[in-house]
Design brief:
The complex is a heterodimer. Chain A has helices at 2-23, 26-54, 83-91, 96-108, 114-120, 136-147, 168-173, 186-198, 213-226, 240-250, 288-292, 302-306, 317-334, 415-420, 445-452, 467-481, 489-508; strands spanning 73-78, 126-132, 163-165, 179-182, 202-205, 230-232, 257-265, 341-347, 360-367, 372-379, 388-392, 395-399, 403-407, 428-432, 457-460, 463-466, 512-515, 520-521. Chain A is of the alpha/beta class. The two termini of chain B are 25 Å apart. Chain B is mainly α. The chains are: A alpha/beta, B mainly alpha.
C-alpha cells in the first residue's frame, strides 16, 4: 500500500514534469502577444494623432464617371509626328503597326501591359473623319490609325478611312468634323486654334498654348467668341497625386509657402529634342512652305523640320515645352495665376549643334501678393533627379507620381508633436503612393522621366490609366455635356503668358513684369 | 535526455530556437497586418544567378498573390512551430528552405548592388545565412521532444509509456 502510494506520488511528479517540459515555451507566446499589442497600440496612436492633425482623407481618387452618352463626336487630327500618335491612341485610335509592336512586346515580356491597357481603355464614342500632316508618310500613317476602329494589328479588319487634308484650313472648314486635336510645332498652335474656333470646331491643343504674346489674346478671343470647348494638353491635370496635393494645400498642411522649386533634368538626345530624321523625308514629301507658315523664311532643312524645338523660329524652348508642365501643375494645385515678374538665365552649354534655344535655363517668377517665389531650373545634360518641391514654414511637399510631406524641424504648427515624439521630421507625415500593389513596366529613360513626374500614367480606383486618355476624355465629355474642362482657356492664358515672360526675360536679358490691370507683359 | 550532456546545453539550444521562432513569427504578422505589403519590390530587387526566377514571380498577379500568401503564412507557422516546439523538425526545415530563398534572391556577393537598404556590411555571409545555419544546427540537435509540444504530439515515449503504464 505504502509502496503503491510512493509509486503514485512519483507518477504524479513525473506527470507534472512532463507537462512542464511540454508546455514550457507556451508563455513565450504570451510575452510575444503582449509585445505585439503594445507595438500595435503605439503605431495606431501615432497614426491617429498624425491623421487627426492632418485631417487628410484616406480614400483614393475615385474612378472617372462613365463615358458620356449622346452623339458620336467626329474628330480631325492635325499633326501626326511624335505627340499626335499618342493623342490619337488616347482617343482610341492606334496605328496597326503600333498594335503589332506592343502585342509582340507583351508576348516576350508579360509585365509590359501597354497592349492590355490600350484594349482596356474605354471607347469614347468618337470617330476620326479627317487628318492632316504636311509630311506624306505621317499623313498616310494618320489615315491608317484613324481607320483602325477595331484596335487591330496589321492585316486586321479596318473601318472607313478618314479623309486626308493637305492643308489645315481645309480640315477646319470641313462640315463633317466637330472637333480637332492639334499636335503641331509651337508656331502653329495659335493660328490653328484660331482657325478651328472660327469654324466652330472644339479644340484640344498641345502645350504651350501659343508661340507669341499677341496671338495669345487672339486665341482667347476666338475660343470665347465662338463658344467652343477648349482643352490645353497638360495631362498632368489628371494625375491622382496632384489632386491629393491640392487637398493637402487646402487643408493647410504646409503652413505659409514661400518657395516652390520645379525642375527638368534630362540627359539623352531625344530628351534634348534631337529627334530621328525619317528616311522618307525630303522636299518632295514635305510641304515646306506650309511648315514655315508664320515663322521667318528659311531654306528647306530636315533638321529644322524634325528637330524644330531647337530653334526659336518654331519653338518656345524649355519654357514652352517643359516649364509649362511644371508651372501648370503648380497653377492647378495652388491657383498661382500669372506672376508679377520674371528673370531668366542660362545658355547653350552642351548641345552646340546649331540650335538657338538654351539647353540650360533657370527662371525665377515672383508672386509678391502671395509672398512666394516659383523657381524653375533645367538642364538637358544631366539626369540627376531633383524633385518638384513646395516649401512651407510647417512642412514641405515633394511631388511626382507619389506625394511625400515632411514636417519642418522648426515648424510652429507641429512643434508640440515633434517635441512629444509623435512626429519625426526625418520621416514623412504623409505619403501617397497610387497603385501600391501595381508593378509598372516603364521602359525608356524619357518614359521614366515622364512617369516620375506624373505625366505618363496615373491611377483611378486602383487601375493604371494613361493621363492623356483621361485628359482627352474630359474634353470629349465636356463637348457633349457642357461641363468645364480642367485646363480651360483661362488656365491656358496663364500658362502662355507665364512661359512668354520667362522666354522674353531670357532672350532680352532683363526683368520682365506683368501688368494685371492692362493684362500686358511690360 | 540522451542527446544532451547537460541541461545547460539544452537550455541554450531552446533559447536559440525561441529567438528564431519569435523573429519568424513577427516578420509574418507584421506583413499580415500591413494591407500594402507585397513581396513584389523585394523580388524585383533580386540580383545574381537566380534573379530571373525571382523576377518571373512578379509577372503574373495570381502567382505573386500565391507567393505573398505562402511567405506570410509560412513565416507565421514556422515561427509558431519553433516557439511551441510543435512539429519542430518540419518547421526547422521549412525555415531553412525559406531563408535559402531569401539568401539566393539577395546574395551579398561582390559586385551586386541592391535598392533595398541593408543595415550592416556583408560580404558573402549575411544575417540571413547565419540564421539559416543556426536553424541547421537546431535541425541536427532537435529540442522539440525535450522541451515542447512535440513531446506530447510525437512523443515516442514519456507520455505514451506513462499512459500505458498507468492503465
Amino acid at each position: 500500500m505504502e509502496r503503491d502510494n510512493k509509486e503514485n506520488n512519483r507518477s504524479v511528479k513525473v506527470h507534472r514534469r512532463e507537462w512542464l517540459k511540454t508546455l514550457a515555451t507556451v508563455p513565450v507566446l504570451g510575452v510575444f502577444a503582449y509585445a505585439w499589442y503594445r507595438k500595435r497600440r503605439y503605431d495606431r496612436l501615432l497614426k491617429k494623432n498624425i491623421f487627426s492633425e492632418l485631417n487628410m482623407s484616406t480614400n483614393p481618387v475615385p474612378a472617372p464617371p462613365p463615358v458620356s452618352q449622346g452623339k458620336t463626336i467626329r474628330l480631325g487630327i492635325i499633326g501626326y509626328g511624335i505627340r499626335g500618335p499618342h493623342l490619337a491612341r488616347a482617343a482610341g485610335f492606334a496605328h496597326p503597326a503600333w498594335i503589332d509592336t506592343v502585342r509582340d512586346a507583351a508576348a516576350v515580356n508579360p509585365s509590359d501591359s501597354r497592349y492590355q491597357d490600350f484594349l482596356a481603355q474605354d471607347d469614347l464614342n468618337v470617330v476620326v473623319t479627317g487628318v492632316c500632316d504636311i509630311f506624306d508618310t505621317y499623313g498616310k500613317l494618320a489615315v491608317e490609325a484613324g481607320a483602325n476602329i477595331y484596335r487591330e494589328g496589321t492585316g486586321g479588319k479596318m473601318g472607313d478611312a478618314p479623309r486626308r487634308f493637305k492643308n489645315y484650313r481645309e480640315l477646319c472648314a470641313s462640315p463633317d468634323i466637330d472637333a480637332v486635336i492639334i499636335a503641331t510645332p509651337d508656331h502653329w498652335h495659335g493660328p490653328m486654334t484660331i482657325e478651328a474656333a472660327r469654324n466652330g470646331k472644339h479644340v484640344y491643343c498641345e502645350k504651350p498654348m501659343t508661340w507669341t504674346v499677341p496671338e495669345t489674346y487672339e486665341v482667347v478671343k476666338a475660343v470665347k467668341e465662338n463658344g467652343v470647348v477648349f482643352q490645353l494638353g497638360h495631362q498632368g491635370r489628371q494625375t491622382e497625386s496632384y489632386i491629393k496635393a491640392r487637398e493637402a494645400i487646402e487643408k493647410d498642411l504646409l503652413g505659409k509657402i514661400t518657395l516652390i522649386e520645379v525642375t527638368t533634368n534630362r540627359n539623352d538626345p531625344n530628351g534634348a529634342w534631337v529627334y530621328p530624321i525619317h528616311p522618307d523625308a525630303g522636299p518632295d514629301t514635305i510641304d515646306w512652305e506650309q511648315f514655315i507658315g508664320p515663322a521667318p523664311w528659311h531654306e528647306f532643312s530636315l533638321e529644322r523640320f524634325f528637330r524644330w524645338r531647337c530653334w526659336w523660329d518654331y519653338s518656345t524652348g524649355l519654357s514652352g515645352d517643359l516649364l509649362t508642365h511644371e508651372y501648370d501643375a503648380m497653377n492647378q494645385i495652388l491657383g498661382l495665376g500669372i506672376p508679377r515678374s520674371a528673370v531668366s538665365s542660362g545658355g547653350i552649354y552642351f548641345y552646340k549643334d546649331g540650335r538657338t534655344v538654351p539647353d540650360v535655363l533657370h527662371t525665377v517668377f515672383e508672386y509678391p501678393e502671395k509672398d512666394l517665389t516659383l523657381m524653375y531650373s533645367a538642364t538637358l545634360a544631366s539626369q540627376r533627379s531633383r524633385g518638384k518641391v513646395i516649401m512651407g514654414h510647417d512642412a514641405s511637399m515633394e511631388m511626382g507620381n507619389t506625394l511625400i510631406i515632411k514636417a519642418d524641424p522648426a515648424s510652429t504648427r507641429y512643434a508640440e508633436q515633434i517635441r512629444k515624439g509623435i512626429i519625426d521630421p526625418s520621416l514623412p507625415i504623409y505619403t501617397y503612393t497610387p497603385g501600391t500593389k501595381q508593378v509598372d513596366a516603364v521602359t525608356s529613360a524619357t518614359e521614366q522621366y515622364f512617369a516620375g513626374r506624373g505625366l505618363l500614367y496615373t491611377y483611378r480606383g486602383g487601375k493604371r490609366v494613361d493621363t492623356t486618355h483621361l485628359h482627352i476624355r474630359e474634353w470629349i465629355d465636356a463637348i457633349r455635356t457642357g461641363a468645364p474642362t480642367s485646363c480651360h482657356i483661362d488656365a491656358g492664358f496663364d500658362e502662355a503668358m507665364t512661359a512668354h515672360m520667362g522666354t522674353i526675360a531670357y532672350r532680352e536679358g532683363r526683368k520682365v513684369y506683368w501688368d494685371p490691370d492692362k493684362q500686358q507683359i511690360m | 535526455m540522451k542527446n544532451w550532456k547537460n541541461n545547460v546545453q539544452l537550455t541554450w539550444m531552446v533559447v536559440l530556437r525561441l529567438l528564431i521562432g519569435w523573429h519568424f513569427l513577427y516578420e509574418g504578422i507584421a506583413k499580415l497586418v500591413n494591407p500594402n505589403w507585397t513581396s513584389a519590390f523585394y523580388l524585383l530587387d533580386s540580383q545574381g544567378w537566380f534573379a530571373p526566377f525571382f523576377h518571373s514571380l512578379t509577372i503574373n498577379p495570381d502567382v505573386l498573390a500565391t507567393v505573398d500568401f505562402l511567405n506570410v503564412w509560412g513565416l507565421i507557422f514556422i515561427g509558431l512551430g519553433l516557439v511551441l516546439g510543435l512539429f519542430t523538425r518540419v518547421a526547422t526545415m521549412a525555415g531553412i528552405v525559406l531563408l535559402a530563398f531569401y539568401y539566393l534572391s539577395h546574395p551579398p556577393l561582390v559586385g551586386l548592388k541592391y535598392a533595398s537598404p541593408m543595415e550592416g556590411n556583408y560580404l558573402v555571409v549575411d544575417k540571413t545565412l547565419i540564421e539559416l545555419v543556426a536553424l541547421a544546427v537546431l535541425y541536427v540537435f532537435p529540442t522539440g521532444k525535450e522541451i515542447g509540444l512535440d513531446r506530447w504530439v510525437l512523443g515516442e515515449s514519456c507520455w505514451g509509456k506513462k499512459r500505458t503504464k498507468n492503465k
